[in-house]
Write a structure and sequence with these properties.
Number of strands: 6
Shape: globular
Distance between the termini: 34 Å
C-alpha cells in the first residue's frame, strides 16, 4: 500500500535587499500565503535503486522531471540538465550528513507543487531547499 508524506514551505516577498541578501546584505522579507509542497509517495512495491522526480507549475503542468539514483543522488535522466545538477548538489550535501537517506526512498515518486507562478520570484529555489531540509531532517541554512 502506498504511503504519502508531504511538507509545505511558504514563499517569501523580499521588500528590501533583493537578492543581495545572499551576499550578507540586510533585507526585509515577509512570508506569503502561497508556497510550495513536496510530496513523497513510497510503498509502491518497486525495487529500483532510483526514485522519480516531477515538478509541477501552479496550473498543474510538469516543468521539470528526472530520475535519480537512490544510492548516490546522481541524475540518471532529466528534462533539464542544469536543474538536475543543482538537485544532485543538494542530494550530495544531504548524503554527507545522512549517508543512507536516499536508499530509504528507492522506488519513491517525489513531486513538488508550486502554489504561485514559477517566475514571480517568491522563492521557488529557497522553498525547495527548505522542503528538502525538512524531508531529510537537517538544517536548511548549510544546505543552501
Amino acid at each position: 500500500m502506498a504511503n504519502l508524506t508531504s511538507f509545505h514551505a511558504h514563499g517569501k516577498l523580499l521588500i528590501t535587499g533583493e537578492y543581495a541578501v545572499l551576499d550578507g546584505a540586510k533585507a526585509l522579507a515577509i512570508p506569503t500565503r502561497l508556497g510550495q509542497r513536496l510530496d513523497i509517495i513510497g510503498g509502491l512495491g518497486r525495487q529500483e535503486a532510483s526514485f522519480s522526480w516531477n515538478s509541477f507549475e501552479v496550473d498543474g503542468r510538469i516543468w521539470f522531471s528526472a530520475i535519480f539514483s537512490s544510492e548516490n543522488g546522481k541524475c540518471l535522466e532529466s528534462s533539464d540538465e542544469n536543474i538536475a545538477k543543482r538537485l544532485e548538489q543538494l542530494f550530495q550535501f544531504i548524503l554527507r550528513q545522512k549517508p543512507n537517506f536516499l536508499q530509504a526512498h528507492q522506488g519513491c515518486q517525489i513531486s513538488t507543487h508550486l502554489e504561485f507562478p514559477r517566475l514571480w520570484g517568491l522563492g521557488t529555489s529557497s522553498t525547495l531547499v527548505y522542503l528538502l531540509a525538512q524531508w531529510a531532517d537537517i538544517d536548511p541554512f548549510p544546505l543552501q
